[in-house]
């Protein structure tokens, strides 16, 4: 496990997760932010898209 500091919607959060955990599951399972959806799991459908520093990314692909 590793500790990360995330700034989500102008709010800072400390989270302790395995470094290889995709951002999608950190948001949904560890932070209860279920607005980000699971779709295909391979970054093709766009259901898991979030903004990271102003850039749209597929959160299912980002550890």
Give a brief rundown of this model.
The protein is mainly beta and 63 residues long.
How would you explain this protein's 3D organization?
13% of the residues lie in helices and 35% in strands. The protein has one domain: Ubiquitin-like (UB roll) (Roll), CATH 3.10.20. The protein has one helix and four strands. A hairpin with a 2-residue loop joins strand 3 (49-52) and strand 4 (55-58). The protein is mainly beta and 63 residues long. The protein has one helix spanning 23-30; strands at 2-8, 11-17, 49-52, 55-58. The model has no long low-confidence stretch (mean pLDDT 96). It has a two-stranded antiparallel sheet with strand order 1-2. Strands 3-4 form a two-stranded antiparallel ribbon.
Give the distance, in angstroms, between the N- and C-terminal Cα atoms.
Answer: 13 Å
Q: What order do the strands of the largest sheet run in, or round the barrel if closed?
A: 1-2
Give the CATH class: Alpha Beta
CATH names the topology as Ubiquitin-like (UB roll)
Low-confidence stretches: none
> Whole-number radius of gyration?
11 Å
List the total number of helices: 1
Q: What does the oligomeric state look like here?
A: single chain
Strand residue content: 25-35%
